[in-house]
Amino acid sequence: MDLPIQIKKYIEKELNTISKNELQNNAKNISINYRKNEGKGKRLLKSENEALAYAISRMPATYGAVYNSLKHSIEIYNPNIKTVVDIGAGTGTGALAVNELLDIEEIQCLEREDSMQKIGKKIFDNYDNISKKAKWNKFDICKDEIKQKYDLVVVSYMLNEISNDKKNIIVEKLWKTCNKMLLIVEPGTMQGYNNIINAKKKLIEKGGKIVAPCKNNECKLQKSDWCNFSCRVQRTKIHKELKEGNVPYEDEKYIYLSVAKENINQTEKSRILRHPMIYSGFIKLKVCDKDEIKEIIITKKDKEKFKIARKSGAGDLI
């Protein structure tokens, strides 16, 4: 689920116009700001160079998280989605992931920060698959109203930036904007999980039908536990330098929730919650099914299921 190669090439070309020191400093500052100002709704970056540093350091991981979340959702429920809005779009990462998975006609990108919009527009202008479908508008979810409705509403890593007293109001606003499905993606932290659980309760109150990843309206995990999923993202040379990492990849942990407006036919399969534990002759899986959280063991005797389990990861159905 890597970013399209055209986009990666364009971003790296733009990065060549900025000194490595400035890029590294911007990437560090962005990371610090996100951690320090989590849930405070403050502005986290201002300049185009900061937005570029964000694009190279965060776009690949965010793209992977949104791509996987939507992929798992449409395995269960795949309505005829033609219009999409990416709210808090940043540099357009969520919209890009949606565009790769669905045959859509219109994507609206709503973003508060001018610098993010400018970089997002440039990225889209250099990628034919999305350039003619996408429109950008300045928008602050906490202050502005959305006048149009869309088949799919996507918000990624946004609730984490909203103050707690406004989160329920924002979730209701997102739900009103949605014609068919709402997809929320959050960091795979305890805070991200809590954001998802609270949004889930509010959306069920409003008549929402849970699509994924949950098998139950009420989470069956113990209060001291939480679930998240992971996607592996390949790092380019400049990505490794900005992250000051040696390995050629990073694992992004995320949590998500997709909710439908209409009744859906839920699968009888279980959702894998943890990375499979592979032993000699059997595989142990922690799964969420319609009744409980449990561990199941698949042995080599069940050849087909064992083969599937070996290739599965957290977040997959089995």
Describe the structure.
There is one protein chain. This protein has 318 residues and is of the alpha/beta class. Among the domains are: 5-82 and 159-260, no CATH class; 271-311, no CATH class. The protein is built from 10 helices and 12 strands. Strands 1, 2, 3, 4, 5, 6, 7 and 8 form an 8-stranded mixed beta sheet that branches. Helix 2 (20-36) crosses helix 3 and helix 7 (164-177) packs across helix 8 (190-205). The longest helix is centred in the first third of the chain and has 27 residues, at 48-74. The radius of gyration is 20 Å and the shape is globular.
Secondary structure layout plus pairing:
Layout: H1 5-15, H2 20-36, H3 48-74, E1 83-87, H4 93-101, E2 106-111, H5 114-125, H6 128-131, E3 134-138, E4 150-156, H7 164-177, E5 178-187, H8 190-205, E6 209-212, E7 229-234, H9 237-243, E8 249-260, E9 271-272, E10 277-278, E11 282-288, E12 293-299, H10 303-311
Parallel strand pairs: 1-2, 1-4, 2-3, 4-5
Antiparallel strand pairs: 5-8, 6-8, 7-8, 9-11, 10-11, 11-12
Which descriptors apply to this entry?
alpha/beta, 318 residues, globular, four-stranded antiparallel beta sheet, 12 strands, eight-stranded mixed beta sheet
